[in-house]
Amino acid sequence: MLSLFGLRSHPARRARAVSKRPPANPREKFLRLNMEALEAREVPAVAVVLDYSRDAGGLFNNPEARAVMSEVATELGNSLNASLGAINAANYPGQSWVASFLDPATGYTASVSNLVVDANTIRVYVGGRALDGPADTLALAGPGQSTIPLLVGPFLPGWDNAVTTRGHSGFAPWGGSITFDSSEAWHFGQTTVGLDANEVDFYSVALHELGHVLGIGTTSQWSGLVSSGTFTGAYAVAVYGAPVPLAPDGGHWADGIKVGGLGANLDPTFDAGSRVGWSLLDAAGLLDLGWGLVPPPAPVSPGTADTVSNGSVTLVLDVQGDVYRQEANGSRTFLTSQVMQIASGSGQLFILRNDGAVFRYDAGGFGLTLTTGITQIASGSGQLFILRNDGAVFRYDAGGFGLTLTTGITQIASGSGQLFILRNDGAVFRYDGSGFGLTLTTGITQIASGSGQLFILRNDGAVFRYDGSGFGLTLTTGITQIASGSGQLFILRNDGAVFRYDGSGFGSALATGITQIASGGGQLHARRNDGALLRYNGTSAFSLVTLTGVSQIASGAGQFFILRNDGAVLRYNGSTGGYDNVATGIAQLAGVQGFILSRNGNVLRYNGFTGGFDVVTSSATHLVMGQGIAFIRRSNGDVLRYNAFTGAFDVVASGTADLAVGQDQVFYRSTAGALHRYNGFTGSFAVSVASGVIDIWSIAGQFYYRDTSNSAFRYNAGVYVAAP
User: Tens digit of pLDDT for each residue in 271-286?
Assistant: First the structure.
């Protein structure tokens, strides 16, 4: 039987199962499809080949529709790990087979004799036709069926195995089919830019239907794990915290289900105007069906990023953003996902979700949101502090966050049991029990913690460690960046070498030829000067990721982003360990708030709820980050500064010819040749620092300018020194 599932849009809120049986044939042997397992992969193991030959309605004559469908097939295929043998009757004399599937063109069963399917490949027939009109069934999908005619030549066990299991120990389909309703108002964008309330996001629906082709809700393996209206697979139960409630059709998660406050893609209904990505629960469903290696009895944490305790409860954050409770017997209980930080304070435990929401651990879980719009949380002196995305710092008091302790802050960090702040004028302060007292140091571009210590990077490239009372001897010099990842501290030297702090100092280089390091999603990444991407493996080295042509990396909104030379932006997916394409046509990345600049001048900001980018302004020529703030220059010469409190950009200068950043400072050159530097304390570019300037630029985190005499100067800790 071919089992198909339809996804419906709101308000028609119930999906239905569609079943069609091929004509009976007593000489045919019907073979059940078997599945195998999804696990995080950096190398694509399964190619999803899309066949549009049954697209009689011409839906995929639209190149944008094909581009999105290809992106979905690549993303989900890249996350599958299986060793599937080829199906080719030519290799087995006298044998044959038939692939059957629901024809997207007609809605009836179609068959292809002796279909050739390459190794590590599944074939999916994709097409569109009018189903039942807008606001009802959006699409239908399911795996195909394999049949071997009996009494054809000598019996060859190898052929039976090739068709049935594809030489694999688990379930191994040849493919299936997906039919989209051609009468829907589809949004074919690879991002959510332009997605309005009357359109259905094609990306989300295509991802959903390919999930059905891979067996979610459409196989006997799925139904074997269904009991009393719930799904009982070990992985899904671990993610959800209990048997997962299903929709009445038994083939989708319950309508409106959420894990960690985020919806699942395999929900039975879909609201127009929104994008729903592949969730941790969806991935767990594939694991329980057997995609990938045979799963262990319970999910294994992929590596610990942080651990906090309030004396009675211990929380563990793994490098994929999942939070577990450590049990007395040594096991771990899954609590929530999509988390970028955990911290303790005032005897409580807190999490910062990657959409900027803060929750407190209560009664075995995380209840109501305490606050939103947060970029960092950190503890010190036994208390919990938050940094809001407008630069304000608050302390947890009596069940909530009270008065603002200070403003104009770029970063907060913990070390040696203390809480530190970096003000946007480069000054560092320590919380002293009631507030932030004397300045500990100035001229700082970054602070970061690792191995329980607090480190600072001075704008002359020197790195210091807090030693209990202040910042003593220089640990090292010539550093352009510091960053935390997997609970450790890393530095990038200006010759391209990356080192890790080992408890007393920085030992041998972990990698060389590096131009950038950045953390996000609990991971530490590095961009090599040949455009290759590397990721720290959590133990002692960087591993090459199969991504090349990388021009920029950045962290923002708790996420890690990659800009490729072709203008595509990819986001690290902590659930799969892969990289999802989230935007195209991009010219620049910027960190902290997750901004990108498109090639057509639009500035977009990452939306942690939708997983996409929203346009926030246009007509931009430059996008830079300095002192923890995003600045843009418009084509009319205005410079705008991001106001995180209002979510808009405020004009802070006009008549500018260029914009650049270096040593975390922001500079602009006026059309008259004056050089101005942003003063984070006053919030303006009020002071001219040079005249007769004809060019400004940045290299390796340093700022340079050239004057009319053709002399070059470099900004160095508040002064400008001659540069070669």
Answer: 888 888 888 788 888 8
Residues 532 and 53: their CA atoms lie apart, in Å, by 37
List the structure tokens of 342: 């955990």
Task: For residue 395, give the nearest of 419, 372, 416 by alpha carbon.
Answer: 419
The 3-state DSSP class for residue 342 equals: strand
Rounded to whole angstroms, the Cα distance separating 622 from 677 reads 16
Q: CA nearest 679: which of 423, 437, 384, 504?
A: 423
- 176-230 residue pLDDT tens: 999 999 988 999 987 777 788 888 999 999 999 999 999 899 988 899 999 999 9
Strand partners, 634: 620
Question: Across-strand partners of 464?
Answer: 456, 474
> Does the CA dihedral 261-314-378-386 come out positive or negative?
positive
Cα dihedral 471, 475, 478, 480 in deg (nearest 10): -70
* Structure token pair of residue 469: 């009372």
pTM: 0.55
* H or E element at residue 164: helix 157-164
Angle at 319 between CA 582 and CA 235, to 5 degrees: 85
Q: Identify whether the C-beta of residue 226 lies closer than 8 Å to the C-beta of residue 246.
A: yes
Half-sphere exposure of 144 (CA within 13 A, CB side): 31
State whether residue 188 is helix, strand or coil.
coil
